[in-house]
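Deliverable D5.2: sample structural annotation.
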Amino acid sequence: MSPAAPGTRTGTGSPSVREALAQAAALGLDRIDAHALLGHALQRPRAWLIAHDADPLPPEAARAFATACHQRADGVPVAYLLGEREFHGLALQVTPDVLVPRPDTETLVDWALALLPALGAAPRVLDLGTGSGAIALAVAHRHPAAQVLATDLSPAALAVAQGNAQRLGLPVAWAQGTWWQAVAAGACFDLVLSNPPYIAGDDPHLPALRHEPRLALTPGGDGLDAYRAIVAGAAAHLAPGGWLLFEHGFDQAAPVAALLQAAGLTEISTRLDLEARPRCTGGRAPSGKA
């Protein structure tokens, strides 16, 4: 017999908080996810749920929680169900038009923030493939002097990013297009950042990510096409001494470093993510000084 939907019970009345959470667990939901979804349905914090676990749910909240639990059990990310995700201290709105920002991407932002003070009073920063705007907005928030431009191929993704910028009051410029095609000819930057699609087309993990935009997950093939395209155009857009930093898969540090080296970048190095896996690799354009 299949478990009852969260938010339903036998007989009259609504389930209690405790009963609804038990039914969510029977569907296979993680306890943290279930608390987040129920708190969202009730507009209450987790502490309230714990303190009021015998309280019955209002019928509308019970139905909303039941629907959300079934969607989560089908693999829909919690961030889509809540409509937001925290990233580098910022509450970002997210929709299925953008990837859910991952904590590992904060490694890329932290590296960028460490470099920016040495790149001038008003460093020019470019975020290629911005999605929700997470990287660009985190940089603009933490380094207000930076002049930040963010691009994306998807107009829908740019709309999400622009909405986040407006809500947060952060001054980021936006452009639509594929990689360097979105950037004006002759425009140069002190720091270029990108978390491009990098999952190989035959990766067995892709089906589990089916609710996120496939275009932002994989370029097909070996997963490296976006790096090749970005590195190929970097020389025309990196200022002397400027940096190009990438996020990549945990097993892609060596090929990404090789692409940077072949393009003539120097000071190539890799940063580890929260689980000590190689996650970001970057290099520096020659300074132009003899």
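Annotation notes: The beta strands are 84-87, 90-93, 124-128, 147-152, 172-176, 189-194, 238-247, 266-272, 278-284. Residues 59-73 form the longest helix (15 residues).
The annotation will be released with the project's public dataset once the embargo ends.
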